[in-house]
Amino acid sequence: AKMAAAGSELLTGWCLFGLALLVILIFCWVYVRKYQSRRESEVISTITAIFALAVALISSALLPVDIFLVSYMKNQNGTFKDWADANVSRQIEDTVLYGYYTLYSIILFCVFLWIPFVYFYYEEKEEDDGNTCSQVKTALRYTLGFITICAVLLLIGAFVPLDIPNKTNSTEWEKVKLLFEEFGSSHGLTALSFSISSLTVIGMLAAITYTAYGMSALPLNLIKGTTSAAYERLENTEDIEEVEQHLLRIKSKCRDGRPLSSRDRRTVQQLEERLRTLRRRERHLESIEKSWWTKFCEAIRPLKIVWGVFFIIVALLFTVSLFLSNLDKALHSAGFDSGFIILGTNLTNPLNMLLPVLQTVFPLDYILITTIVMYFIFTSMAGIRNMGIWFFWIRLYKIRRGKTRPQALLFLCMILLLIVLHTSYMIYSLAPQYVMYGSQKYLVQVAVRHTCKHLYSMLKKHVFIVCTFFFLLDQCIVTRTYLFLHKFWFFSAAYYFGNWAFIAVFLIGLIVSCCKGKKSVIEGEVDEDDSDMSDDELSVYY
């Protein structure tokens, strides 16, 4: 009966996960089809991009499920439910753990094998069109380098020592080791954990670059809006007339048969390229001005402002919460050698205060934690879309609606995969106690002194309080997410410093976004390196 009840509760969690999976797949298909180039689209690259993006979003959806399951095993009074004995609890925990390892194994497969192979295959296809066998061989040769890196990470993870000497806080570290021992120390799983943690550090760098900027750019762009298509078209017409007059003045120099100087020829070439770009802008602006989508966006302009204000408030809330959480670690953690792991919460933050309040009304806390995860994903997408894909100071690709190359989409999905890996730690930094235990409570007995007619007696009273780090593992069940995040102390130390960098980049991005003017209504749609053939797709979008 207990197993049947446990299966029912487990089925509830996985049904929610299945519903989220369906929504994620539909969203991924629409998103990839929206941005991919119709002229350069390929079936394999499209399937790869949709699959990789879906894996990224599914991995982020597993965190709320993990928190829900550990919380649902206990009643509001702190006692375990009838079906949640030790064996059943372990079974549920292992199921979530295997879900994490399955998804993380798929992420390793995508990052180190599938996406690199498809990327290099299409890079070779552009250079050597027609020889499929040669393209596959070259792609496999380049992909072998990624496979080697993955193998090295797995080997390091299998043998890296987990025991860290700590002389100053040995009592606290005994509790940390209990968590690690409870988690298990299989070399195969440890190797996978090390590889994923290594990718998470790269995801942290991507989050600092793209997510932090997206959190400031997205809401401010919604608030400021875009310039009017009619006004931009009028300015563009004036620019066209000015360039045409300049061209006529230069070409008038050779009416008497004299050839143009090399300087004038270069100027004419630049002006003709500029004129072609302006005429493409004219066609785009004309299509946008007549489109029903533009009229619809103008009608919902007040709603966009409201959403922009809401998003900037949420971004500031996250930043303040992250700052207070990091400050708490700086002041009260066991130090660098422990990965700045903090036992308990000394400086509370707004988000950590809000979640326990929402726990009283099911399922508001789970809705909030899911919203936070998706907010990070969408702001990351906005940051990548606005900035493009860079390698240090070199811009590799632009993300544009209907004109994104297959290689750029593969890069986009890989970056999102890495950012999602770091999202779990970001959520933990914002609400550490909630990510560890969810809404679990702990039932304890306290002695209360009772006075009656000058006689004193001690009575035992049961009280329940929220689970924290200091309670026994058999009474408060720790989420698999938390144990997975803190398996290696040096990665936790890297995440700690990464949070400070994230806050700094967000504040810089906020200042830059405030100083910028309104975006063009065709921002990023027309570039000088575009061909005139790209205008054939206007009717698809406008």
TrEMBL record:
Membrane-crossing residue ranges in chain numbering: 12-32, 44-65, 98-122, 142-162, 189-213, 305-324, 366-396, 408-428, 463-483, 489-512
Cellular component aspect of the GO annotation: lysosomal membrane
Main location per the UniProt record: membrane
Pfam short name (any one): LMBR1
Domain of life according to the entry: Eukaryota
Chain coiled-coil ranges: 261-288
Membrane topology value: Multi-pass membrane protein
Location within or outside the cell: Lysosome membrane
GO terms (BP aspect): protein localization to lysosome
Keyword vocabulary terms for this entry: Cobalamin, Cobalt, Coiled coil, Lysosome, Membrane, Transmembrane, Transmembrane helix, Transport
Example GO molecular function: cobalamin binding
InterPro entries on file: LMBD1_LysCbl_Transport, LMBR1-like_membr_prot
Protein family (similarity comment): Belongs to the LIMR family. LMBRD1 subfamily.
Protein name listed in UniProt: Lysosomal cobalamin transport escort protein LMBD1
